[in-house]
Amino acid sequence: MESTARRYALPLLLAYPLLAIAGAVTHRQIFPLLALALLLTVVMLPRLLTFRVAPWSVWSGALVTLLLLSLYGFAGLLLEAVPVLINAVLACWFGRTLGTSEPLVARFIVAIEGAERLQQPGVARYASQLTWFWTVLLGAQALLLAVLLLGAEHSGLLARFGVASPLQVPERWAAAWLHLGCYVLLGAAFLLEYGYRRWRLRHLSHPGLHDMLLQLALHWPQLLRGHGAVAS
Predict the structure, then answer these.
(1) pLDDT at position 204, please?
(2) Who is most buried in 105, 114, 198, 206, counting CB within 10 A?
(3) How many angstroms separate the CA atoms of 63 and 68, rounded?
(4) ∠ CA(162), CA(167), CA(169), 5° rounding?
(5) How far apart are CA 84 and CA 221, in angstroms?
(6) Domain residues of the chain, as ranges?
């Protein structure tokens, strides 16, 4: 069931930024509505594939709610808030494991390479430092995205309610970063960190990028629950 959900979720997620950009460019409510419906479907896909009445009822009710909101012109606003929410939730996810015996990156290492990997020289310390890095980066980006959402020149929340923004951001730049730039930044940071890790821990062998991403996808439930890894 989980493998089926992963197989369908990836192409759906690839369509999400295209719909978001189309909505920002055309200002037509149909595109943010489709993007939100797609995102909702991806989130609920594992439960929908159980074919139980409850998740399908929740999914249907949420779609009806999105449709009603789009009729009043709020679908675009909800879509613009999604990147803020994603970055804030991820920052909290990383941050809440700081100072514990199991920083989140340590979970990643255990899931991909096994618990013994943390006992190798420098690995546990780097896992803790990297958890800090992602917490700060995601938290800072959530704050930046919130500022863009509030202060965009024409579509910002303050402008919509007739409040003069102390920091007016050009519409084009705000939309570009909200719907594309923020994801590009995270992808670039991930790739740069992967290269830096291979250099810093060059005394160790490392899995290839493809294998690492595959293992992350396969062990996603374990990452959510934790593994009991103990960083030294």
Answers:
(1) 83
(2) 105
(3) 9
(4) 90
(5) 24
(6) 1-73, 81-232
Which pLDDT belongs to residue 67? 84
Q: How far apart are CA 80 and CA 179, in angstroms?
A: 7
Angle at 125 between CA 124 and CA 128, to 5 degrees: 90
Amino acid identity, residue 105? Answer: V
Helix locations, 27-103, DSSP H = 30-48, 53-71, 75-95
Residue 114 backbone dihedrals phi, psi, to 5 degrees: 95, 155
What average pLDDT does this structure show over 70-91? Answer: 80
The pLDDT of residue 95: 93
CA dihedral 178, 188, 95, 40 (to 10 degrees): 50
What does the DSSP 8-state code read for residue 99?
T
